[in-house]
Design goal:
The chain is of the alpha/beta class. It is built from eight helices and eight strands; from the N terminus they run βαβαβαβαββαβαβαα. The chain has a single domain, classed as Aldolase class I (TIM Barrel, Alpha-Beta Barrel), CATH 3.20.20. Strands 1-8-7-6-5-4-3-2 form an eight-stranded parallel sheet. Helix 3 links the parallel strand 3 and strand 4. The radius of gyration is 16 Å and the shape is globular.
């Protein structure tokens, strides 16, 4: 039986009161705080850096901060976010000169490490680094902006990632989370879970609602139907 985790993305939060937004969504039942970092280089947008991560850390009350780096190069910012209080750091393999080394740098800094796959990026990057992976993140939109619509064929990639994870952990043990980010909402979260995901990033689907508890509860009700 999989453990399901809801990870609201603060990219869709009200930045004028970000600490309160983080506290409110945790009180509403969030399991993880998802932190989107864009550099206006690897992706066409510019968001937030390590100082913001450090600022929200006291508001997280022990809830993990999951930092998704949409940046190039990766290594220096990965180190900065680890120092700023990140618990999980994921990055896009094509943005790193040496994927294995970047994963090692993140883990040596005391964080969990993972790879992120765009809709058109092959999962073959996983072939030689599964021993260093704690999370696989499948993008169900093209990265760069919040509020996009879910790309349906991403479910095929989720299924293949689940197959790879299960095959590896059956042989070697351990735990690897499978996260999906982009257009996840109450009306499709069950299908995403059926494809194999266990961790669900939702930005506007949560922060765009007046009552965070109601929408998170509705998502959990959908997920409960799979148990």
């Amino acid at each position: 039986m999989r453990t399901f985790r809801i990870a609201p993305s603060i990219l869709s939060a009200d930045f004028s009161c970000l600490g309160q937004e983080v506290r409110d969504v945790i009180a509403a039942g969030a399991d993880i705080i998802h932190f989107d970092v864009m550099d206006n280089h690897y992706v066409p947008n510019l968001t937030i850096g390590p100082m913001v991560c450090e600022a929200i850390r006291p508001h997280c009350k022990g809830t993990p901060i999951d930092v998704h780096l949409m940046v190039k190069p990766v290594d220096s910012l990965a180190a900065a976010f680890a120092k700023a209080g990140a618990d999980i750091i994921t990055f896009h393999p094509e943005a790193s000169e040496h994927v294995d080394r970047t994963l090692g740098l993140i883990k040596d800094a005391g964080c969990k490490a993972g790879l992120v796959f765009n809709p058109a990026t092959s999962l073959s990057y996983l072939d030689h680094v599964m021993d260093k992976i704690d999370m696989v993140l499948i993008m169900s939109v093209n990265p760069g902006f919040g509020g996009q619509k879910f790309i349906p064929h991403a479910l095929d990639k989720v299924r293949e990632a689940r197959r790879r994870i299960d095959e590896y952990t059956a042989k070697h043990g351990g735990e690897i989370w499978l996260e999906v980010d982009g257009g996840v909402k109450t009306d499709n979260i069950r299908a995403v879970a059926e494809a194999g995901a266990d961790t669900f990033v939702a930005g506007s689907a949560i922060y765009g609602q007046a009552d965070y508890t109601t929408v998170i509860d509705a998502m959990r009700a959908e997920l409960a139907q799979l148990r």
